[in-house]
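Dig into what follows:

_____
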Amino acid sequence: MSAPMADPQISLGSSALVHVVHEGYVREDGDAEHVGGTVTLIIDGETVIIVDPGMVSARQVLLDAVAAHGVEPGAVTDIVFSHHHPDHTVNAALFPAARIHDHQAIYDGDQWISRDADGARLSESVALIATPGHTPQDISTLIGTAQGRYACTHAWWGPDGPASDPFCTDVPALAASRARILAAAAVIIPGHAAPFTPDATTPR
């Protein structure tokens, strides 16, 4: 893997629009556990991105939420997997024309295009960075908007962390990734909750 980018020098435009089309959750209901992933729609000119098209209560719920922003499934150009847990990937096929991006490659039809995601650009205002910790392969999506910079990431499940991620594979790496994201973005879109603005109580 190449050396991480110097975060203060990540250059992004401010033309993207960000819409959280599904707020994730994890909750108990009797003997069942309900898991929903946070799904984000990013529009930057002709680039239309879905980040983490994962578990929702019904697929039509996700399609309707995307359509509410004027986007049909076939118009999505790119999908980003923050990592390969099914609760963040299972609905990728709803967007049949999209290229898929993960930590190591772009998948486009039958093409496997190897590349390191750290520093990869999807558009003028959208870039990927390596943020391991939750898994060794985690990446985050940085988005430049007129309102500031956002990060879609699973470095946090929600605003309270949890401070000790129960699935964390590398505690020091997660701490370093959290620091990197906080240096690069003003708003966090976490894996299983609504967006939040970090403050002194945000787990590091």
Notes: The two ends are 24 Å apart (CA to CA). The CA atoms of residues 44 and 117 lie 19 Å apart. The chain has two helices and 14 strands. Helices lie at 59-67, 171-184.
